[in-house]
Amino acid sequence: MPAEVVGIGANVYDTLIVLPRYTEEDKKQKAESVSMAGGGPCATGIVAASKLGASTAFFGRVSDDGAGHFLLEDFARYGVDTSYVSVHAGYRAFTSYVMLSQETTSRTIVFDRGNLPPLVLDEAQKAAIREAKVLLVDGNELSAAIEGAKIARESGTAVVYDAGGRYEGVKDLLPYADYLIPSEEFALGETGESDAAAAAKKLYEMYHPRAVVVTQGSRGGTYYDGQELKTYPAMPAKVVDSNGAGDVFHGAYTAAITRGMDAYTACLFSSAVSALKCEKIGSRAGVPDYETTISFLKEQGYEF
Description:
By secondary structure, the chain is α/β, with parallel strands linked by helices. The chain has a single domain, classed as UDP-N-acetylmuramoyl-L-alanine:D-glutamate ligase (3-Layer(aba) Sandwich), CATH 3.40.1190. 34% of the residues lie in helices and 23% in strands. The protein is built from nine helices and 13 strands. The chain has helices at residues 41-51, 66-77, 123-131, 142-155, 184-191, 196-207, 245-258, 265-277, 290-299, and strands at 5-8, 12-19, 33-39, 56-63, 85-88, 95-101, 107-112, 134-137, 158-163, 179-182, 211-215, 221-224, 229-232. Strand 8 (134-137), helix 4 and strand 9 form a beta-alpha-beta unit. Helix 5 packs across helix 6 (196-207) and helix 7 (245-258) crosses helix 8. The mean pLDDT is 95.
């Protein structure tokens, strides 16, 4: 069976360091805990979609070392098809160190992109895009993402673009997004506007997606589809780890699309998934299943 959701983008080996508070410069501090986890916008989004019931596959490359094998095993743990992932010896993985402050519930990240060769789509991957319902991209592996998005456009596969980073060349990917979901920082920086509503409208006018969703963290977000301008709320949560919340939102959005939700309802669903994730340590481990999410939404007064 072809995967409903396929992804092209970053797949990161995270070291999560939980601290009582951020360490002062040139000081030492004992960590509350240290753990390893899979991360990266697209890869985490794919895991979220899988945990929410979609069939998924990731396209990419991993290093032939402990980090690479951990990432493959992590995908398998969550039911993601890794048959489109190749293993390469002699390279460093994309890694990051994520410091989580218990005092502020915020996170600080230091990363190394590694040196894996860029992804080049093969015929099997191209065929999988044509057969999928959704292609999720995040601006990493840009050349492959653009090629994949063009194939998706020709095949009727929806493209969800997790636009978090303003990487060089992303303007070539933006026109192929059916659901353009930028961070507020990206939206304001890309448009030169001073508020999310104006930025959402301008992005829509520039690229004509089905919908623009500007994510605004704990303030929820702003939605525009060319006719309706709306906000959606950040759902209540007892936050212990906000790292990966945006990645999870995008993955939940792809799962919502596969289930036939409309573009705005998908925002509410994804906001709920993201909130529930924040109540647990780990961007992937904390993702709830579909039934838990729907139950939570009903508790908040939403009918699904």
